[in-house]
Amino acid sequence: MLMFPAVGFSLDTVLPHLEDGPTRRPNGTSRRSMTSVFVVSREPRMRATVTDYLRERGYDTATAANYDIAMEALGGIRPDAIVADVQGVPRGEEGSNFSHFNQWLAASFNSHAPVMVYLLHKGARRPHFRLEGAVIKKPFPIEALGEALRERVGHPRKDGAGPGIDLDLTTNTLRSATAETHLTNIEATLLAYLMQHPGEILHPRDLLVDVWQYHDAAGASTLVRAHVSNLRRKLRDVLGTADQIQTIRGKGYRFIA
After folding, report:
1. Does residue 32 sit in the same domain as residue 79?
2. How many CA atoms lie within 13 A of 147 on its CB side?
3. Are the CB atoms for 37 and 163 separated by under 8 Å?
4. Same domain flag for 140 and 220
5. 24 and 140: one domain?
6. Predicted local distance difference test score (pLDDT) of residue 169
7. Average pLDDT of span 188-195
8. 142 and 192 belong to one structural domain
9. Which of 101, 114, 129, 255 might form a disulfide with 194, Cβ 3.0–4.6 angstroms?
10. What is d(CA 171, CA 41) in angstroms, rounded to the nearest whole number?
11. How far apart, in whole angstroms, are the C-alpha atoms of residue 81 and residue 205?
């Protein structure tokens, strides 16, 4: 059994109370080569344990340390599922609380909503979830999370035998099983966007608008090419290859997981 005293989080072999609510599965997921899960929790060890578990089972993961970071990141990506740790804002800290995040989710995903899994302390009052989903009571066995995801999005889609890329948007860190590297904000945002559109050919002009909200496309190819070059170098450092990002001459870039 793994114990996390600071948050009262345990992993054992007893299934928790799991409450189901109707969820809508995102459309178009057949175009994605790997199933993506976004994890938001204030607890570093919770994020690490959950993402390690998911990566070992073939999911792509991205994480955020609070709701503000999550809302910023999710504004540009569309994961298959979101695992949201329902937590308050610690005394003395500022930032959005779960109520704000809850309302933002409903407004941002009013169509094609991702599968939601909420982590809620046992005995805590259950909020009104604007996007319905599974509720797992903490402490819980880690396999309960896998069960909840499999029931709603199926087994993870894989394009190979290895684990998925782990992109931590909280720290802009790209990890593999043996190495990690820091990405700039632009590189992390670009990689997250590419990972959410695998197989699609993305023109540099579209990347400027969709990723960085630039509306002046002058010099788009040169600017994007420079960032893609830096990102490829870091992919090679961590994964040993940068083949995930393909250049389609005259058209743009394509991400292959």
Report:
1. yes
2. 16
3. no
4. no
5. yes
6. 85
7. 89
8. no
9. 255
10. 13
11. 28
The torsion angles phi and psi of 229, rounded to 5 degrees, stand at -60, -45
210-217 long-range contacts, Cβ below 8 Å, gap at least 24? 210/76, 211/76, 212/186
Same domain, 25 and 126: yes
Nearest Cα to Cα of residue 84 among 69, 180, 159, 111:
69
| 135 and 190 belong to one structural domain | no
Instruction: Starting at the earlier edge strand, list the strands of the sheet with 245-248.
Output: 201-202, 252-255, 245-248
251 near 207, Cβ under 8 Å? no
Q: How many domains does one find in the chain? A: 2
Q: Residue 49 is part of which domain span?
A: 2-153
Final residue before a domain boundary, out of 153, 176, 202: 153
**What is the spatial distance between Cα 172 and Cα 160, in angstroms, rounded to a whole number?**
25
Residue 134, strand partner residues: 117
Residue 214 clears pLDDT 70, i.e. is over it: yes
Any domain includes 247: yes
Q: What percent of the chain has pLDDT over 90?
A: 39
